[in-house]
Fold ABC transporter substrate-binding protein.
Amino acid sequence: MFSQNKPLKGAAVLVTATLLAGCGSLLGDGENDEAIVVGTTSTPSVLDPAGAWDGSWELYRNIYQTLLHFPSSSGTPEPDAAQRCGFTDTVSSVYRCVLKKGLTFSNGNALDAEAVKYSIERTLEIKSPTGPAQLLQSIDRIETSGERTIIFHLKRPDATFPLVLATPAASIVDPAAYPADRLLESDKISGSGPYLLDGYKEDERAELVRNQKYKGSAEVKNNAVTVRYFKDSAKMVEQLKNGGVDLTYRGLTPEQIDDFGKNRSDHPEIKLNEVYGTEIRYLVFNPRHESVAEPAVRRAIAQIIDRKALVRNVYKRTAAPLYSMVPGGITGHTSAFYEKYGEPSVEKARSTLNQAGINGKVKLTLWYTTDRYGATTAEEFAEIKRQLEASGLFEVTLEGREWRDFQEGVTEGEYPVFGRGWFPDFPDADNYISPFVGEENALGTPYEHKTLTGTLLPKSRKESDRGAAIESFTQAQKILAEDVRLLPLWQGKLYIAAHDDIAGVEWSIDSSTIMRLWELDRKKSW
């Protein structure tokens, strides 16, 4: 289902594997004080939105506010803190927003145009190596007019800019509480989102309560949510089965998903929901390391990797082979790597290496994070090692690190080859290419290419009709397949396992696959 040629209008269309059951069930009205408990393996790295471009966004979306947001089943941004927004010129280079009246932060301070300006300029100024400053790089300057109007002047035309403003990269923070030149070290958060962070224990839990001062687009259907963070998927599922967790989001292993699907009678109160996902997993090569500096080595690996075997043997078909950095369901998707390399072939890989003068076994070290994407990551890399070594062309060493240490190694350019997962910032092909290329990118591996970064991507951003940018994205994907600096592996689905008294699951995922906790509620009757 992931190699569709027609783009989906909503990248987060929900396909329920098991429909939420019940006879005449009624949704609650948010008056139930019992907190809904959500389990996940996606642990925040920092609480300051200027410092993280990772799974921390799951929390940010619920405690911070942005000018725009992605509504249910739509990739077109709509106002949140803003009353209205739009380009004021014909070439998508000046963008103007007017704030809603009477916005305040949770501490009572006014959320005005200066606060928005401060928040975004602060992220750009701090430029944290693990932060989202790169997403905001198209901004040349920001000006305000009165207390409610913000005007963004862009360095160049960028039709994707409204999409960026709908991401947590543009989270609005209180200037009085967040220092301008460094990240906030306290867990005393002052946001204006649907929830207040009432308590936080790093790597363990976040206690959220409804923000009574919130004035935005979300209709909050519960009074409190506790997010529990797990390093071990097995412990998370055990808590789900024992009633310590009401719902799990991110981190279920293929075996656990299969178990919920096949053995429903063991836990009939738990329903498994399959969500159309645009998550991708890929390998990154850093040519600054001698072992992968030669393009022939990278191309040989691309020629050997058997994606079908990978998703069959490791992911039990809960994922699909991916032959492009742009996944199926996103406008502009192609199968560039399949067109370039076809089916796996050891002979073609050997020929590629021999033509480059490489005749002996190539020694490689592959790095991965042990606690970010679920327990199956280790099995995935073991399968990649097996495939490469079975060819007789490679000798592979595997190294795993916990996320924070792994991230540090990435930013310092320590790894020759490493694995990464990507959940989209926004549902556009640009977001699966631009963050990973250019002199400064999210991977710490500079990737300059005259045609790719100098012509194709700038050209695509001029198109307000994103369908008109397909030609540029098609050419960009061909370049990525030729260079093999990035090697796509698979495209995943999201699975949410929830107790059957939890309502709103089908509306809880936005088009960037971030969970909107405010949509969850307990069913009041059956």
User: Anything to note?
Assistant: The mean pLDDT is 89. Residues 10 and 74 are 4 Å apart (CA to CA). The longest helix spans residues 376-390.
